[in-house]
Design brief:
The chain is of the alpha/beta class. It folds into two domains: 182 residues, Aspartate Aminotransferase, domain 2 (3-Layer(aba) Sandwich), CATH 3.40.640; 106 residues, Aspartate Aminotransferase, domain 1. The chain contains eleven helices and twelve strands. Strands 1-7-6-5-4-2-3 form a seven-stranded mixed beta sheet, with helices on both faces. The protein has a five-stranded mixed beta sheet with strand order 8-9-12-11-10. Helix 4 links the parallel strand 4 and strand 5. Helix 1 runs parallel beside helix 7. It binds pyridoxal-5'-phosphate (PLP). Pyridoxal-5'-phosphate binds next to helix 2 and helix 3.
């Protein structure tokens, strides 16, 4: 691993600033992590202090007052909350079904692959055919399963807090850009607004990317097995899973049953977030209200022994 460097300043040489001079503009651990993730996504990548910070910087840096975002319905709840908060700055958003074509007369298309917690996949071809630029929030797919820039998207967004970080110990966001001009514009906006990631989380991301492929393969193997067993369970009405990755959701009988399942687990943590070594589960209605069925439980399957995860789920379902 490269050393962790927390310096905020580097001296000029012969009176001239070099590549590194002040941490807000660039720092070694940020550059190293951006290079590694950029290679995986196939485009210049910038890191931000959280996924939400990355989304805020992308919208504020790219759009102008009076412009409209088409947002995939059923996607990450916080993205809709962020866009609502930005209405005060004159940026509007409308929701649409991302499995079909986006609406006309929008300036930015915001997809999620797969959506969290409904696990739908976007029609990327239809979105790319639209004149507006396309952002794919690829947090749950990771570059192991999807490279949206190759498919014609303009930006890939990550909450690196999830699978990329992978250990529930780092809050971080990323944007990979198809065009160098967009990357330069976003970089300038990031330096001017100060929405920058610190060295420590960048160092943790570099560490985590080294195991991304093996972790994702194990997440998929474990989640696929859990999905098969859930689908065969009489207490489970519906299972949503795109066929890859560690994130899934399923419906039990009703809201009361969901609450009983999440509070009866002994090994799986009843907690929010996803993408870590340990499995976590939660009923999403506590955050999202009517937007999700009260019987919906979102499960992020970790890297544990799958029989132990299933044994805990089975006893809770019972
Ligand atoms: C968690 C999440 C975000 C927000 O990321 P933070 O790092 O929590 O700010 C955005 N999109 C998706 C799909 C997420 O799961």
């Amino acid at each position: 691993m490269e050393p962790l460097d927390r310096a905020t300043i580097w001296p000029y040489r012969e009176g001239e600033p070099q590549e590194l001079y002040y941490q807000r503009y660039a720092h070694p651990n940020g550059l190293a992590a951006e290079r590694a993730l950029g290679e995986l996504e196939g485009g210049e990548t910038l890191l931000f202090p959280s996924g939400t910070g990355a989304a805020a910087a992308l919208v504020l840096g790219l759009l102008e007052r009076g412009q409209t975002i088409a947002l995939a319905e059923g996607g990450y709840y916080g993205t809709g909350l962020l866009f609502s908060a930005l209405e005060g700055w004159g940026v509007r958003h409308v929701e649409f079904d991302q499995t079909g074509p986006p609406p006309d007369d929008v300036d930015l298309i915001w997809l999620e692959a797969p959506s969290n917690p409904f696990l739908t996949m976007p029609d990327l071809e239809a979105a790319v055919a639209h004149p507006a630029r396309v952002v794919v929030d690829s947090t749950a797919a990771t570059p192991i399963y999807l490279r949206p820039l190759d498919a014609g998207a303009d930006f890939v967004l990550h909450s690196a807090t999830k699978f990329l970080g992978g250990h529930h110990d780092v809050l971080l966001g990323a944007v990979a850009c198809r065009s160098a001009d967009d990357a330069a514009r976003l970089r300038t906006f990031r330096s001017r607004t100060g929405i920058v990631a610190a060295p420590d989380p960048c160092w943790l991301l570099s560490r985590s990317l080294r195991t991304l492929r093996v972790r994702m393969e194990r997440h998929t193997a474990n989640a696929s097995e859990i999905v098969d067993r859930l689908r065969a369970h009489p207490g489970v009405n519906l299972v949503r899973y795109p066929g890859f990755g560690g994130l899934l959701s399923f419906d039990v009988a009703d809201g009361e049953a969901a609450r009983r399942v999440e509070t009866s687990l002994q090994r799986i943590k009843n907690a929010t977030s996803l993408g870590g070594v340990e499995s976590v589960i939660e009923s999403r209605t506590r955050w999202e209200g009517d937007r999700v069925p009260p019987a919906l439980l979102r499960l992020s399957v970790g890297l544990e022994d799958v029989d132990e995860v299933w044994a805990d789920l089975a006893q809770a379902l019972a």
